[in-house]
Amino acid sequence: MRSEIHHQKAKKRGLWKKLVLLVMIACVFIAVVGVIAFKFMVARQDVSLLEEPLPAVTIIYDQNNEEVLRISPKKAEAVSYDSLPEQLIEAVVAVEDKRFFEHKGTDLQGIGRAMVTNLTNGKTVQGASTITQQLAKNVFLSQERTWTRKWKELLLAEKIEKNYDKQQIITFYLNQIYFGEGAWGIKKASDVYFGIPVNELSLTQSALLAGMIKAPSALSPY
Predict the structure, then answer these.
(1) What is d(CA 53, CA 55) in angstroms, rounded to the nearest whole number?
(2) CB distance 185 to 76 below 8 Å
(3) CA-CA-CA-CA torsion sign (84, 81, 103, 131)
(4) Is beta strand 67-71 parallel, antiparallel or unpaired with respect to 58-61?
(5) How far is the C-alpha of 183 from the C-alpha of 74, rounded, in Å?
(6) What's the rounded mean pLDDT across residues 171-199?
(7) Are 180 and 219 in contact (CB under 8 A)?
(8) Residue 99 or 14, more confident
């Protein structure tokens, strides 16, 4: 009798082990398929638009060949990475994406931290978009807040990180964003607020410009 009960228990344990093993295999299979599908979708993203030159400023002259009007396009002239002061890059990273040089486009730690902060406050007070994600949104997507847009933003950010290094990404970003007062891009912002070239920005000037990125119209010193 005891041997029969022992045999039934051993049989049940064997079935449970097989079931657990099957579940584990299924999970691994789903994970592998998911990773392959994700990489395939990332590979299909086209981010070549980042390399297209930005529109130049239109300058109108009078009959004496003197400048009378300068019309800035939505996107200003670009500057190279070498023109960006180190303190400007550090200030922007500190304000917008502290782990920019560590993550690969999406910051899981930042997402977790933002979720905890937002749940604690009962409302959305902190975002989790990286500089790369913001670049993807600004260049390729609309400003609508939907899960579809966030998913596209994630795919584009992953592709950008695969195609470009961090120096190129931060340069693209600073050349694309709005600083208020009609200033699109860091070159125009440096001129509008301080009347100097980007490479001459001081630490305090860099900090002011970096701090304005989140709400340029509301935080403009003017």
Answers:
(1) 7
(2) yes
(3) positive
(4) antiparallel
(5) 8
(6) 93
(7) yes
(8) 99
Cα-based torsion angle of the residue sequence 191, 93, 46, 31 in order, rounded to the nearest 10 degrees: -170
Burial of 50 (0-12, 13-18, 19+ CB in 10 A): buried
* Spatial contact of 210 and 91, defined as CB atoms under 8 Å apart: yes
Amino acid code (one letter) for 61: Y
Per-residue model confidence (pLDDT) at position 17: 77
> How do residues 1-59 score in pLDDT, each as one tens digit?
556 665 566 666 777 777 887 888 888 877 777 767 667 666 677 777 777 655 555 55
pLDDT score at 131:
94
**Identity of the amino acid at 212:** M
Residues near 161 by beta carbon (within 8 Å), at least 6 away in sequence: 104, 105, 132, 169
Tokens 């009078």 belong to 62
Longest alpha-carbon distance in the chain: 114
Tens digits of per-residue pLDDT, 117-128?
Answer: 545 555 444 456
Sign of the C-alpha dihedral, residues 49, 163, 92, 191?
negative
